[in-house]
Recover the amino acids of this structure.
């Protein structure tokens, strides 16, 4: 175990690591490095030699038109998709294919495109599922159906309620997700990701289905989180991406076509050409010129 490995809670200590004051040992210090990532699905090259680094405490945006390869790269980062070629390291250690339950132990949490809550569990139970990293009884005993200690259960419940409260969804703890408005479900999904106090948060289209004011709140929240963790953000809403990201990588047809700060990316003609195809088409239409490459949409 390296010096950056997560401390194991000692016997007698509380598993709830939510100190009142911001603690320095939780300052973001780990980076995710993806180098030369190539993914082929049969004959389809979904990604071709894509490289990016999510720096500690930064929000890294991943954008591009539909089918650009964003979710595929996201799934590589989650360990769901194994790259055909390329290297990936997290905290300086090689990151290989993972089972979903192994992510939390590595300090990584994610939310998926859509919501992905368990319909048969209450909101609180859904969020408690995300807290496995801190439960001393652990996955092994859950697997063997050994009774988890009452104390672990209480601590887990407290952590989950605190995460819900941070996202203003505490009052829905006893409800089932299906009966809640979509934006509330998205907040619950985010609470489930945050309850494990991750060092790396992977978000695939967190703003989809949100109204303008909710999107604004989400932006503020992501900025706040970046003080505690690194964030990889896949998102179609350009205003949100430009507002919250420190750096942005732009994909088109599986290739990286631009990378840099929001200002650099916005000024890059390759991005305008690829990603803002709609606007270009509109301008060309207005100018009476024709296009031969077909329209593209983004969102
Ligand atoms: N499991 C799969 N099998 C075969 N092809 C796939 C698979 N997953 C993705 N692809 C293909 O890989 C390419 C990239 O898809 P991906 O879903 O990563 O794009 P995306 O940028 O997330 O698009 P969107 O904006 O629509 O979410 C597309 O051509 C897609 O059809
Ligand atoms: Mg996608």
């Amino acid at each position: 175990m390296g010096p950056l490995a997560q401390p194991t809670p000692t016997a007698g200590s509380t598993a709830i690591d939510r100190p009142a004051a911001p603690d320095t040992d939780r300052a973001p210090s780990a980076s995710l490095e993806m180098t030369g990532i190539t993914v082929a699905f049969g004959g389809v090259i979904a990604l071709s030699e894509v490289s990016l680094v999510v720096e500690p405490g930064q929000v890294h945006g991943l954008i591009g038109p539909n089918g650009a390869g964003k979710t595929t790269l996201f799934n590589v980062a989650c360990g769901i998709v194994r790259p055909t070629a390329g290297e990936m390291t997290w905290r300086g250690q090689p990151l290989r294919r993972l089972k979903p339950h192994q992510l939390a132990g590595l300090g990584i949490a994610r939310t998926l495109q859509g919501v992905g809550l368990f319909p048969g569990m209450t909101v609180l139970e859904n969020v408690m599922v995300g807290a496995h990293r801190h439960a001393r009884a652990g996955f092994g005993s859950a697997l063997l159906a050994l009774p988890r200690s009452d104390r672990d259960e209480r601590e887990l419940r407290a952590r989950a309620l605190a995460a819900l409260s941070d996202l203003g969804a505490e009052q829905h703890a006893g409800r089932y997700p299906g009966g809640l408005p979509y934006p509330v479900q998205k907040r619950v999904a985010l609470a489930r990701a945050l309850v494990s106090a991750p060092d790396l948060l992977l978000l695939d289209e967190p703003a989809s289905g949100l109204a303008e004011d909710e999107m604004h709140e989400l932006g503020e929240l992501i900025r706040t989180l970046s003080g505690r963790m690194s964030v990889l953000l896949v998102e179609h809403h350009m205003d949100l991406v430009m507002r919250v990201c420190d750096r942005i990588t732009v994909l088109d047809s599986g290739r990286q076509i631009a990378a840099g700060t929001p200002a650099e990316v916005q000024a890059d003609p390759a991005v305008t050409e690829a990603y803002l195809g709609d606007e270009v088409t509109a301008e060309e239409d207005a100018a009476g010129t024709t296009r031969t490459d077909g329209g593209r949409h983004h969102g």
In short: Confidence is low (pLDDT under 50) at residues 1-25, 134-146, 288-299. DSSP finds eleven helices and ten strands in the chain. Residues 70-71, 113 surround magnesium ion (ligand 2) (CB under 6 Å). The chain has two domains: 46-107+198-289, 118-197.
